[in-house]
């Protein structure tokens, strides 16, 4: 049999990771955990040894103490098998891989966003731009005079602008 308990829990690190609304619940949990650990540590790790010779001298019925000793020593109380540590470790490793791939994704998008920011910072400030400067800087962001559009001037509401114009003599 084995008695296992964590003796070093980093409560400060746990407190940093939880929201302020949960601090009271963590304090209550820590208090309860400390009480359980104190009660467990108050007991000896191994059961006290039984002085069988004392009982042999004191008990009148012959063979009764030997029978009890034999049964007591053959008694095996199984310690519960640990079925969860492997699953927890596997899930922890899986989450670590997912976190690492998410970090790499974010690093890639950070590079793209930094390029956009650099191009914006390299531009002439809008207050100092002429209309020609703006048209060069943002080709899709200005009204093109070579293409006539209809209200509401969105791509979804326009007819095919590249289609050749055909004249109908109906009118």
Characteristic terms for this protein:
mitochondrion inner membrane, CF(0), ATP_synth_F0_dsu_sf_mt, ATP_synth_F0_dsu_mt, 171 residues, membrane
Give structural notes.
With 171 residues, this protein is mainly α. It contains 6 helices and no strands. The chain has helices at 11-17, 23-42, 52-58, 64-74, 85-122, 131-137. 0% of the residues are buried.
> What's the number of extended β-strand segments?
0
The computed structural class is mainly alpha
Instruction: Estimate percent helicity.
Output: 40-55%
Rg from alpha-carbon coordinates: 39 Å
Strand content: under 5%
**Overall 3D shape:** rod-shaped
Please outline the major beta sheet. Answer: none
Keywords: CF(0), Hydrogen ion transport, Ion transport, Membrane, Mitochondrion, Mitochondrion inner membrane, Transport
Subcellular location: Mitochondrion inner membrane
InterPro entries: ATP_synth_F0_dsu_mt, ATP_synth_F0_dsu_sf_mt
Protein name: ATP synthase subunit d, mitochondrial
């Amino acid at each position: 049999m084995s008695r296992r308990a964590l003796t070093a829990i980093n409560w400060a690190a746990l407190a940093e990771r939880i929201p302020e609304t949960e601090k009271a619940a963590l304090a209550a949990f820590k208090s309860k955990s400390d009480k359980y650990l104190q009660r467990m540590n108050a007991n000896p790790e191994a059961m006290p040894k039984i002085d069988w010779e004392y009982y042999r001298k004191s008990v009148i019925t012959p063979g009764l103490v030997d029978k009890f000793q034999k049964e007591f020593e053959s008694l095996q109380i199984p310690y519960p098998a640990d079925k969860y540590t492997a699953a927890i470790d596997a899930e922890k490793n899986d989450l670590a891989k997912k976190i690492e791939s998410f970090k790499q994704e974010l690093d890639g998008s950070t590079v793209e966003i930094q390029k956009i920011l650099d191009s914006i910072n390299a531009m002439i400030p809008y207050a100092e731009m002429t209309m020609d400067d703006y048209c060069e800087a943002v080709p899709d962001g200005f009204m093109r005079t070579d293409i006539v559009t209809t209200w509401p001037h969105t791509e979804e509401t326009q007819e095919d602008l590249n289609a050749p114009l055909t004249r109908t003599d109906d009118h």
